[in-house]
Amino acid sequence: MLTILFGSTSWGATYFVSTSGNNSSNGSQSAPWQTIQHALDNIVSGDTVIINAGIYQENVTSRTNGTSNNRINIKANANVILRGRIYLRHSYITVEGFEITNSGERQAILADRNANHIEILNNDIHDIGSGARFIELPRSEGIPTAPMRWIIRGNRLYGQDSATIYILLGGVGHTIENNEIGPGVISEDAFRPFGDNHVIRNNYIHDIQSGGGHTDLMQIFSSNNWRVFNLLFEKNYIRGWDGQAWMFSVTPNSQRITIRNNIFENVRSAGQSYCPLTKVYNNTFINSGFGNCRVIMMRGASGRGIANNSEVMNNIFYHTGCDENNGWYSVDSVVSGFVGDYNLIFPNKNGFTENHGINGLNPRFINAEGSDFHLSSNSPAIDAGTMQSGFNDDYDGNVRPSGAEWDIGAFESEYKGTANLIPIFLLLF
């Protein structure tokens, strides 16, 4: 008799897969199937597949849709290694708990345009073949319509095989959060986002070396009329990135990129944007920007777009740039409507002036050498920023302001003692 799962809005059968199973059996716990693909060939909406421990050498493809109330769940039951690829062609599917590694496939997880409302949870994906994408969702020209509403959460992505891209996004409304990315060697980008209304937040991205080529934390480029619209990158901790922070080189149909409440520590090169309405708010930049001297560049060029109406506000630039004449941001002469103010630069930078900026005052972090960039009680960044629309919290989730005005940088000053900036969930790996 198969196990039946009952809930308030969903129910279905639970099937089992084991390397010692038999595809001619009934898939019960006592008589499991042998392959993951056979399980996917035989389940229906609402069913759960439990994969028992072992090494599975196969490429698998989804065969049917779940629904919003009856998802299909594919779950690894501890120490499941998939040496192959998962191809998702259907909707309302959860993939959870796998270790995925292969050296001969172009992707670890690949999506079809019809694969909506997918959850990729708590997987360990590493050492994918050279020139590969760890997770790839298809792109579309013009206004994107699919895939939609993916959640990529709690995964570890790493490896030394020069993977081209860790996550390539297309479609609408995806959330990438609480993942650890690195250490590793990549030849291109950590994120290549296209489409509308994506959120990338609370990720720990660290110790990434360049395997050659053009390595960006995030890259968007003009090709085949692909676009990005309304992208939010927030509360991420980037440490030890051997490349450029971001490159948004696109036509003007891409716009509204917001980068806020992040920590960038030891990022080699500048972030460049040709996108209108690029907003950079309340970030903390540490020992970064040496490759291009300036940490942020708002650009404009024919065929690439112009970063009109962009803003750089409330950021801390600490030991950034290559000399006293650089180290914060620059704006091309063709860019109009730019606003930069309420930023703190340390040490003193010749030529840095803002109406309300702070030039040359130590922000007085709790412990900069120990990578604790919370503000001490006597920091000049306290109450020295200005309110920004669209959010009212800091990196830790504390409400802004905690005093009379917003603080500059990723943290409000209402902090007591020391803390590990790596997201708490990552300490459980």
What does the model show?
This protein is mainly beta. The protein is built from one helix and 37 strands. The protein has a domain at 245-416. A hairpin with a 3-residue loop joins strand 28 (300-301) and strand 29 (305-306).
Give the arrangement of secondary structure elements.
Blueprint: E1 3-6, E2 11-17, H1 36-42, E3 48-56, E4 60-61, E5 72-82, E6 86-88, E7 93-96, E8 99-100, E9 107-111, E10 119-121, E11 124-126, E12 133-136, E13 151-153, E14 156-169, E15 175-177, E16 180-193, E17 195-196, E18 199-201, E19 204-210, E20 216-221, E21 228-234, E22 237-249, E23 255-260, E24 263-273, E25 278-281, E26 284-286, E27 296-298, E28 300-301, E29 305-306, E30 311-313, E31 316-318, E32 329-331, E33 339-341, E34 344-346, E35 358-359, E36 365-367, E37 372-375
Parallel strand pairs: 2-3, 3-5, 4-6, 5-7, 5-8, 6-9, 7-10, 8-11, 9-12, 10-13, 11-14, 12-14, 13-15, 14-16, 15-18, 16-19, 16-20, 17-21, 18-21, 19-22, 20-22, 21-23, 22-24, 23-25, 24-26, 24-27, 25-30, 26-31, 27-32, 30-33, 31-34, 34-35
Antiparallel strand pairs: 1-2, 28-29, 36-37
